[in-house]
């Protein structure tokens, strides 16, 4: 078994926390291994962190991993393949050459962001970090709402690490966040790349900011630009899931991005949705919205936080959503709707209680209640008392 990401790609997106600066082969590396013991976390930090080693040294360490042993680092891909979902491993094996050259780089330059998306955290959103009542969220989830992430130290070490690597063979560059168009570190980085004409540039943006003329002139120099607007819903539900900027502003910017794509065909705009327990029932609406606008639609399943993931909606309801859709032949959506439940027990009960507390708190904070934004999902959640779980 092989995964070319281990030889051709580097991902550095953990801005803070126990895995700050972790140098990974892909974004799913150790993503589903929340129970890693502290000693192993320390080993990761020592051998694969920009705070301790060079990127090339970390690449040498990653090359030693034997996928035939099915290491827990790659559980997410193994689980998705078992459930009929195309995994990143399968995608990477088609995209990369496998020759050992650095062809793909995925980065978060910092955690500077202007929104407080409810599946995000203080590591990747400076707006979350500035919340006056952050301690209330910590009572629900201490791991997501660390009050002391050092974004500046991370960015300083990342810039130093990047200065020592060869980017001449780069074919793919993906910038995450924070919000790339809100972060000067991000815009400076992609403007200063030399071999732009050879590189496909990818952005994940919340759609709240339309780039300046200077930035657009820079984007035109790249071989291809893919701007993925992270839109999980529309109207009130969109504002509930990704609070901080009104839906009207985001939709207006979306139209501008579409016009930009028409003017410059090498710049493509698409919508990317994260499917969670809060929007699993509107998948068809998201698909139709993109079809009406002739936009490409991609989506992934939310894995974290687990108390907002698909596992929180009982299987019988997810199956009902699947069979009520017009596009019932979509295998990825079917796999999501059929994704296994957590066995009944104390863990599931605790997750349910976390979910209720978090939804109530965010609803009060941002002034949008889930019962107003997605009544169907709200009713399902309310019907599941602790005894059921």
Overview of the molecule:
The protein contains 18 helices and 7 strands. The chain is α/β, with parallel strands linked by helices and 389 residues long. It has a domain of 175 residues: TIM Barrel (Alpha-Beta Barrel), CATH 3.20.20.70. Strands 1-2-3-4-5-6-7 form a 7-stranded parallel β-sheet. Strand 4, helix 10 and strand 5 form a beta-alpha-beta unit. The longest helix has 21 residues.
Quick overview:
By secondary structure, the chain is α/β, with parallel strands linked by helices. The chain has 18 helices and 7 strands.
The number of distinct β-strands equals 7
Radius of gyration: 21 Å
- CATH architecture of the domain at 108-282, by name, is Alpha-Beta Barrel
Q: What gross morphology would you assign? A: globular
Strands side by side in the biggest sheet: 1-2-3-4-5-6-7
Number of helical elements: 18
**Sheet with the most strands, sense and barrel status:** 7 strands, parallel
Strand content: 5-15%
Q: What is the element string, with H for helices and E for strands?
A: HEHHHHEHHHEHEHEHHEHEHHHHH
Sequence-ordered SSE layout with sheet pairings:
Blueprint: H1 5-8, E1 9-12, H2 38-48, H3 55-63, H4 75-82, H5 88-95, E2 104-107, H6 126-129, H7 134-138, H8 151-162, E3 172-175, H9 184-192, E4 200-205, H10 213-219, E5 224-230, H11 235-241, H12 247-263, E6 267-275, H13 283-292, E7 296-301, H14 315-323, H15 331-337, H16 346-366, H17 370-373, H18 375-383
Parallel strand pairs: 1-2, 2-3, 3-4, 4-5, 5-6, 6-7
Helix pairs in contact: 14-15
